[in-house]
Amino acid sequence: MDATTFAALGEPSRLRIVELLRLDRLSVGDIAEGLGIRQPQVSKHLRVLREAGVVDVEPVARRRVYHLRAETFEEIGDWVDSFERLWEARLDGLEDFLAATATDEE
Questions:
Q1: How far apart are CA 65 and CA 90, in angstroms?
Q2: pLDDT, tens digit, for every residue of 11-47?
Q3: Which helix (H) or strand (E) holds 60?
Q4: For a disulfide at 79, which of 1, 8, 54, 56, Cβ 3.0-4.6 Å?
């Protein structure tokens, strides 16, 4: 997992852009309108997100349309899942320990 991804997503405006792009592919103008911020600001945020591998862009007629990269979010999901498996194993170990301790006390 690349820390650049989390750094890019850690900025509130960029996270809001990602939330908008979850719903649809959007142009810079559409994102600016949806967030109520100026297009140059949106373009800067999109550049950071693109460099971090969070979004891709494609030309459609005279517009540039942005969309989320599924692979990046699959990687994040796998990373989060690894922590879930770790904690499940630890909690199972604690449960076994507590059961053994209870049996020893009886």
A1: 45
A2: 999 999 999 999 999 999 999 999 999 999 999 999 9
A3: strand 55-60
A4: 1
Query: Can you read off the two tokens belonging to residue 1?
Result: 């997992």
Of 3.30.300.20, 1.10.10.10, 3.40.640.10, 1.10.599.10, which CATH number belongs to 1-68? 1.10.10.10
Query: How many beta carbons lie within 10 A of that of residue 31, not counting itself?
Result: 22
Q: How far apart are CA 16 and CA 34, in angstroms?
A: 10
pLDDT in tens, 51-64: 999 999 999 999 99
How many CB atoms are closer than 10 A to CB 36? 7
Q: Which amino acid is at 1?
A: M
Q: How far is CA 71 from CA 4, 13, 60, 97, in A?
A: 15, 22, 22, 39
For the chain, what are the domain ranges?
Answer: 1-68, 70-106
Contact between 6 and 18 (Cβ < 8 Å): no
> Is residue 8 exposed (0-12), middle (13-18) or buried (19+ Cβ within 10 Å)?
buried
